[in-house]
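U., I forgot to send this yesterday:
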Amino acid sequence: MKSNSITSFHYLRFGLKRIYYYIRRIVVKSKKIVILLMALTICFGQVKQDTATVDHFKTRKFNVVIFPASYYWKSEQKFTPTRQEVEKAEKALRKQLKALNKHLFHQEEPPIIHKNLKKYIRHYYGYIDQEGHRILEIHCFWEQSVQEYDWLEPLLVFDGGSHFWNVKYNLDTGVLFDLEVNGVA
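Result:
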């Protein structure tokens, strides 16, 4: 009877050692895998962006972010808008938006965008269209709707009605065009 308990203890001890051995092997392999994944991420996972940074440009009349060319995803021919170009577009927004917004699409409920322009923060991207015109794409966000987000980074919003809209401005012709107000889900 004594030998059975010794044998059981021996098997138990042997089993625990074996379990410990396998756990150590898994941990060691896991560490190697984690180190390998980190190395691969460092080597190959970095996205190439130019060294230009986002320009937060705020005045009494507007609050905007100007994104460098590398942030624009829709066009191969892109450029970084200047503050002077943004000021030109902001003047056009104040003068031309009401006429462009005459149909009030997706604005059954407030806000009416041309009446509340100061309450929108804006993102500016620059690209060159097929005719060679320099175009500013302007994404507009109701300030209170994006407080919980880092709006100094690109945002993409699909619904939200007139809280989110975009428009384009042709720097060469001085014309505001292609107003799109988000739908309501």
